[in-house]
Design a protein that fits this description.
By secondary structure, the chain is mostly helical. It is built from 10 helices and 2 strands, in the order ααααββαααααα. It has 2 domains: 69 residues, Winged helix-like DNA-binding domain superfamily/Winged helix DNA-binding domain (Arc Repressor Mutant, subunit A, Orthogonal Bundle), CATH 1.10.10; 142 residues, GntR ligand-binding domain-like (Four Helix Bundle (Hemerythrin (Met), subunit A)), CATH 1.20.120. Strand 1 and strand 2 form a beta hairpin. The longest helix has 32 residues.
């Protein structure tokens, strides 16, 4: 086995400060590992294709193999990792088709959710949704914006009292997190999204179901198509650069900013 596949990439040159993390209960350890790996994938610390060897991950987080196996199984079900025979787990690649499909499904489910929720909104829930909308608009950090964006969307649907529907939507939000970050490469994407959020919020306040559904569907399908184009262009550029390699010093590590 060579160095690239025999150890966990995050272990290069930066041991984690694990003293403050309690991992005694197996479920807590599994969740801790899954959350840390998911965050590292979202922010790009763990790139598509990066190996996730169970033994190396376990050593890195100072846990046994069982919670690591559970964490990787959870991440695979969410689309963050893929497992291949004789290769083990790796970070799943970004896919233009998957990105577009996630937003197509979100458009259908969230259109239903907002229709079910509007009549049940109260002054209190509308104030909460508006606060989340404002928080997303004022958030400049891409990592934090992803959470603010999800909180705003989910606050619009919460009064629907459809737990299974909301669970499906939440899962799709999780699967779409790292795709949403692709948009941050565009200088005006956030301004457009903030404007669309504000228009959607106004429609919900007016209890205008038809307009809210229309705005939400356009917002999500538009994002899906944009991501599809960006990822297709990125794949084309990657093919054009194929065969060209850049030597990286052995002591260089792209993971110094990783935190559990």
């Amino acid at each position: 086995m060579n160095e690239a596949t025999d150890r966990f990439p995050l272990g290069v040159g930066n041991a984690l400060p694990l003293a403050a993390i309690s991992v005694a209960p197996r479920t807590s350890a599994s969740k801790m590992v899954a959350d840390a790996l998911r965050s590292a994938i979202v922010d790009g610390t763990l790139a598509p294709g990066a190996p996730l060897r169970q033994d190396a991950v376990a050593r890195h987080f100072s846990v046994s193999a069982i919670p690591v196996r559970e964490a990787l199984r959870q991440l695979e079900s969410e689309g963050w990792t893929k497992v291949e025979m004789h290769k083990g787990a790796t970070v799943a690649p970004l896919s233009a088709d998957e990105a577009r499909e996630i937003y197509e499904i979100r458009a259908a489910l969230e259109s239903l959710a907002v229709a079910c929720a509007i009549a049940a909104h109260t002054d209190a829930t509308l104030r909460e949704a508006q606060a989340f909308c404002d928080a997303a608009r004022s958030e400049a950090d891409p990592a934090l914006y992803v959470a603010r964006n999800e909180a705003f969307h989910m606050s619009l649907y919460a009064p629907a009292a459809r737990p299974q529907l909301l669970e499906l939507i939440t899962t799709l939000h999780r699967r779409g997190e790292r795709y949403l970050r692709v948009k941050f490469g565009l200088p005006d994407h956030k301004t457009v999204s903030d404007r669309e959020h504000a228009a959607l919020m106004r429609a919900v306040r007016r209890r205008d179901v038809q307009t809210a559904q229309k705005l939400l569907t356009e917002h999500l399908l538009g994002t899906g198509e944009l991501l599809y184009r960006l990822l297709q262009e990125s794949a084309t550029d990657a093919l054009a650069r194929k065969g060209k390699t850049t030597r990286v010093p052995r002591d260089a590590s792209p993971f110094t900013s990783f935190k559990a």
